[in-house]
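pinging the channel bc i need a second pair of eyes. not urgent but kinda urgent?? the chain im working w is below, pasted from the shared doc
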Amino acid sequence: MDGLFKYKICTADRRLDCWTALQDPDHPLNKAWPRFLDNDPFQKKYADQLLQYPGLRRFQFGILEQDARGEETMIACARSIPFFWPELAHLSKSDGGEDARSRLFSSLPDEGWDWIVACGVRQYCARESIAIPPLPTRSVDFEKRVAASDFVHHLSGPPNALSALSITVREDRRNQGLAEQLIDAMKQTAQMERLRILIAPLRPTRKMHHALVQMEQYVSWTLPRHMEKQSRSVVANTPSPKAAHCRGEASTIPFDPWLRKHIRLGGTVAKIAPASMSVCGSFADWQAWTGIDFDSLGRHFRPLAISKAGGSSQETYWEITIPGGLVPLKVFPGAEVCVYTEPNVWLCHAVEGR
């Protein structure tokens, strides 16, 4: 920590004023994320509601930096939401076996971030007798799955778990332990609120450099054994660990730095969420979000084909990698739309007995 600055953690229920600066799309904490993710319909609908509802504000954390003149700036933030997890409620505190934990983890939704933020807000509204907001449009299948989910059938149950939604640190303040402080603040809050577990649909930070690699394979990558105790700066510049695996020199420490941080803080990989976020837009939308001229792409790509609903016909598309994308973007030239479906990794942190 620089001697000229002082840091402190605050929650939105105590310092809501500090969060108003984040309404500026050019705020450094907003620019840390790919622009297209702001257009996930669940992000657009529910992000502001985390601050709108008083009962959710204490689960939103910020780190304020105070300079020598006493002026405060938010340099890091974390968003989270409490929710009722029916499968966790059925699991006794003494049942910590591998089979029980496997069943619990497998119940986490494939739609990760979109699902958990929607269910968390809808459950809160039901508990507080507030009109439950309708789901944003994603797909008919998604809406049916949410409607049939135990998460929704127990709308009014008291929360028993906390889900992190995002942790963001300003670029020039990274590697100073601020992310660790925010993770610990969420754990402490979960414990005080008598919530049994902290989960997170995690977005691995270096996956964007390996967009053509399946998430399951990427998560299995580990650091070369000789780098287990190297400095953060050295590890951050490590290329993909394929060569280490070929030589049989791989360690058990995850290759991805964000995943590695959670594991070192006690987290456990639960499962992959293959469709955690979804963004659909026109060619014009995606050109604005990525700077790519999609109208001229056709002559550069060999079209692929997918079956339409019912399998009666085929629809051609292209796949391209995009800046900030964890997986390729599907480009549908006939409809002049692009669809991005992002996978995340479900992480779990124990809270009880800390």
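so The longest strand covers residues 268-282. and DSSP finds 14 helices and twelve strands in the chain. — does that match what u expected or am i reading it wrong
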